[in-house]
Design goal:
Strand order of the largest sheet: 1-4-5-8-9-11-12-15
Radius of gyration: 19 Å
Largest sheet: 8 strands, antiparallel, barrel
Number of domains: 1
CATH topology: Porin
Shape: elongated
Length: 205
């Protein structure tokens, strides 16, 4: 079971014990922080399974804006500066790199919204766009292209109230699969499916 699944299960078990409180409809929050996008360990293979892929992690600043459509229930948009990932092929070493932006739209529920500790859960959709692909090593001089991706996303986190704001610690899972092309020929699919870990300061308006 992946870490995010364990976290969701643990949080679901804890929900009945949490007191009901509201973050009111019509409020906005802005969360400014940083996240590490950490792809899963098995990122797929190229060339009919002969070339296993390995995609590195990346940490960048993030911002999330949330609008509460009902008490406790918000719609959040996550944005970031471009993440950069090294791409390795087992046995060949580093063969390239890419940048990506992963805007994510989520519907989120906040528990104990006016308390000192406020957990949250969310589900949504992620769109990842890849750009500035570069090649080196065994692929030096070739054209590398990764296709954009649509997929599901999940979010768990905890807000710790600090003054009029909060410190948020959270984790996100994103379903990201991208076709890999070299000089226009499709060689396979990169199964990235990262978990993004991070922290942010949350401002309420």
């Amino acid at each position: 079971m992946r870490p995010l699944s364990i976290a969701l299960l643990a949080l679901a078990c804890a929900v009945p014990a949490l007191p009901a409180a509201a973050q009111s409809a019509g409020e906005w929050t802005v969360a400014i922080g940083a996240h590490n996008v950490n792809p899963k360990s098995d990122n797929g293979t190229l060339a009919d399974g002969t070339l296993p892929l390995s995609i590195g992690s990346s940490t960048r600043p993030t911002i999330a804006v949330e609008y509460f459509v009902r008490d406790n229930l918000g719609i959040e948009v996550l944005a970031a500066t471009p993440f950069r990932h090294d791409i390795d092929i087992d046995g060949l070493g580093q063969v390239g790199s890419t940048k990506h932006l992963p805007p994510t739209l989520s519907l989120q529920y906040h528990f104990n919204g006016t308390g000192t500790v406020s957990p949250l859960v969310g589900v949504g959709v992620n769109y990842t766009t890849f750009f500035d692909e570069e090649t080196r090593g065994a692929l030096a001089g070739s054209r590398l292209a990764l296709s954009n991706s649509w997929g599901l996303a999940a979010h768990v986190g905890v807000d710790f109230k600090v003054g009029n704001g909060a410190i948020r610690v959270d984790a996100r899972w994103m379903d990201i699969d991208s076709d890999v092309r070299v000089d226009g020929a499709k060689l396979g699919t990169a199964n990235i499916d990262p978990i993004a870990y991070g922290a942010a300061y949350v401002l309420k308006f």
